Amino acid sequence: MERISNFQLFTITMFLQIGTTVIFGFASAAGRDAWLSILISTVIGMSIILLYTTLMKMNPGLTLVEWFPAQFGRWLGIPLAWLYPLLFLYVAGRIFSDLKSLIPATLLPGTPPWFVVISMLLVIVYCLFSGIEVLARFTEYLLPVLLLLFILEIILLFSSGVVDFKHVRPILGQGWGKIWSAVWPTGITQTFAETLILAMLWPSVKKPEKVRKTTFIATLLSGLTITAFSLMAILVLGEGIVSHTVYPLYVLVRQISIADFLENLDAMVALTMIIMAYVKVTIYLFVAIRAIQILLNMLDNRLIIFPVAVVTYLLGMTMSQNINEHFYIGITAFPLYVWVPLLIILPIPLLIVTVIRRKLLKTHL
User: Fold this and answer.
1) What is the percent of the chain where pLDDT is above 90?
2) By three-state DSSP, how is residue 150 classified?
3) Which regions of 210-324 does DSSP assign to beta strands (E)?
4) How many Å apart are CA 127 and CA 147, to the nearest integer?
5) Which residues contact 263 (CB under 8 A, 6 or more apart)?
6) With 90 as the cut, is the pLDDT of residue 48 above it?
7) I need a labelling partner for 270 at 20 to 30 A (CA). Which of 82, 125, 175, 362 fits?
8) What percent of the chain has pLDDT over 70?
């Protein structure tokens, strides 16, 4: 079985949580208080991750899709477990739908969306055949570079003289209502609760006893990173522009201009956003393939890779007609009717049943 280190789990977790969130902004419904919504979402998200890691400790050596048959029995547990690979495939399709809009709008204007998705998919399929260790090493080397670029971009924005602290005041000027609307359900589920998918990888970590600590640290750093960029977008662009911009990070970095020399860095940012999306969709496809392999009791998952790639391509190309429809489903309907039941509601009875079964087992012993 392939193994990954705890630091590699840390980098994978950060790539997953930041992912496309930094591309499209986060908690824009909260206006100038979006950064506060992110901090609250981070704290609540860490409590949900505590639930996930507790389930991991009570089901040692088992992946996410094995928890349900182990606790609910095969007749109920296996149908419930199948919901998760189907969810993973749908989310991967949504990310491809993100990319088919992002790349033609930023790096390659006029490029056919099908060409963008197929080009990305071919690289992802190669990575899927190579295995999780290759992806883990890729994130291990790349994350420090991307974090340094993020820090450099913030320094350059301050050096450009475009930061205005008046844009963020007054804090809580519109009360807690808008903040909470950004926190629940999208803020919690879109970034932090989806960490549940990594339960497919946790048994592969070399030191599973450190998974909780590693994931908590990664979540905290991810939350602070997203908070920093959300705050910078508000300080530079103002609440009105951020709320109506499809790619706020892309627009934000275009404001960098130092001595009419250091400017037009938007291509670098667009490339960074594409890399983040690439890693996230690869993680989703890998765990989907792994889940299907386990549920079908297959010895080799390579036979699944191409069918999964085709299904994901079709989903990405057909799930929405335009960016507005894509946003509406992703922000309004999907978190409430899909993320919340599968990522928050269903793990709670699973934990309750697990605790009861363990106590009954100890009683019989």
Assistant:
1) 39
2) helix
3) 257-258, 262-263
4) 23
5) 256, 257
6) yes
7) 125
8) 92
DSSP class per residue in 52-102: HHHHHHHSTT--HHHHHHHHH-HHHHHHHHHHHHHHHHHHHHHHHHHHHHH
Q: Could you give the dihedral angle defined by the CA atoms of residues 39, 18, 91 and 288, in that order, rounded to the nearest 10 degrees?
A: -120
2-29 pLDDT, tens per residue? 789 999 999 999 999 988 777 666 656 6
What's the pLDDT band for 287 if we cut at 50, 70, 90? very high
Q: How far apart are CA 118 and CA 96, in angstroms?
A: 9
The mean of the pLDDT values for the chain is 85
- pLDDT band per the 50, 70, 90 thresholds, residue 205: very high
The domains located in the chain, with CATH, are 6-364 (1.20.1740.10)
- Contact of 146 with 275, CB cutoff 8 Å: yes
Q: How far is CA 74 from the centre of its chain?
A: 30
The answer to whether 12 and 135 are in contact (CB under 8 A) is yes
Kindly report the pTM of this predicted structure: 0.92
Q: Are strands 257-258 and 262-263 parallel, antiparallel or unpaired?
A: antiparallel
27 φ/ψ sector (left φ>0, alpha ψ -120 to 50, else beta): left
Amino acid (1-letter code) at residue 288: A
Rounded Cα distance between 78 and 320, Å, is 30
| Measured CA angle at 89 (ends 88, 90), to 5 deg | 90
- Per the document, the length of the chain is 365
Instruction: Report, in angstroms and rounded to the nearest whole number, the Rg of the chain calculated over CA atoms.
Output: 21
The full 3-state SS of 18-54, as one line of letters, equals HCCHHHHCCCHHHHHHHHHHHHHHHHHHHHHHHHHHH
What's the CA gap between 217 and 143, in Å, rounded?
A: 15
